[in-house]
Amino acid sequence: TLYHAEARDLLSALDSFHQHHDSARASAELAAATSASSPREPTAPGDVAGGRREPRRSLVQWSDLDLGRLLLGFGHRQQALAALHEAVRLAQQSEDHVCLAHALLLLAHAHDGI
To answer: What is the DSSP annotation of 7-71?
Structure first.
């Protein structure tokens, strides 16, 4: 994706972006299926492990954040804002505070026109 972004080739950058996130999602689903078959402490979204609530794990909010960053880099501000707003919403729902902080920072920069 970086190569295509530097070459200013949006279609190839988006294709590379989708390939990366599709393979990351498939890997995460395989890892989740493998760990679910072995007995351990609760690790499903919202389960309690060690007396505290486990955050739900998802890659979707990170995918939206990366898409927003990519679109901003190509100057597609309105599409980037839509992706970033979605990243904020999903990060809030999945209690992913790190992704939420990144999304809010990038959203602020996008609104400032940076």
So the answer is: TT-HHHHHHHHHHHHHHHHHHHHHHHHHHHTS--S--STT-EETTEEPPPP-SHHHHHHHHHHHH
The CA distance from 6 to 74, in Å, is: 10
User: pTM to 2 decimals?
Assistant: 0.63
pLDDT, tens only, 43-52: 444 444 444 4
Q: Which two tokens stand for residue 27?
A: 């890997």
Residue 41: both structure tokens together = 């402490």
CA distance 104 to 81: 11
